[in-house]
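Anyone up for a design puzzle?
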């Protein structure tokens, strides 16, 4: 399993539009083969709004298949103009989970 974290800083007044787009595609993303979980989170620091997505995938291969899909290409093209800076992404593998 891998966890994918993406942080996107939004232009002022674009949060609602981003969330509208996410609402339209979240079920399709979550139902992609290999996707086990999908979250969207928000942070605000010094007036800068960031939206984070955290997704859990069976493998990097499954994630890359999604990233190569029309769904991803279309979604990314719609949200990218809403960013105030380049998005940052991390792909992580679990070392240990402490119950």
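Challenge accepted. My sequence:
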């Amino acid at each position: 399993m891998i966890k994918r974290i993406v942080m996107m800083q939004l232009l002022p007044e674009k949060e609602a539009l981003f969330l509208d787009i996410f609402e339209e595609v979240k079920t399709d993303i979550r139902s992609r083969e290999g996707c086990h979980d999908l979250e969207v989170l928000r942070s605000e620091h010094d007036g800068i709004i960031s939206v984070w997505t955290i997704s859990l995938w069976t493998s990097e291969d499954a994630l890359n298949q999604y990233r190569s899909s029309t769904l991803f290409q279309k979604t990314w093209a719609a949200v990218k103009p809403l960013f105030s800076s380049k998005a940052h992404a991390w792909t992580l593998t679990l070392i240990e989970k402490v119950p």
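A detail worth pointing out: The helical segments are 15-30, 60-67, 70-79.
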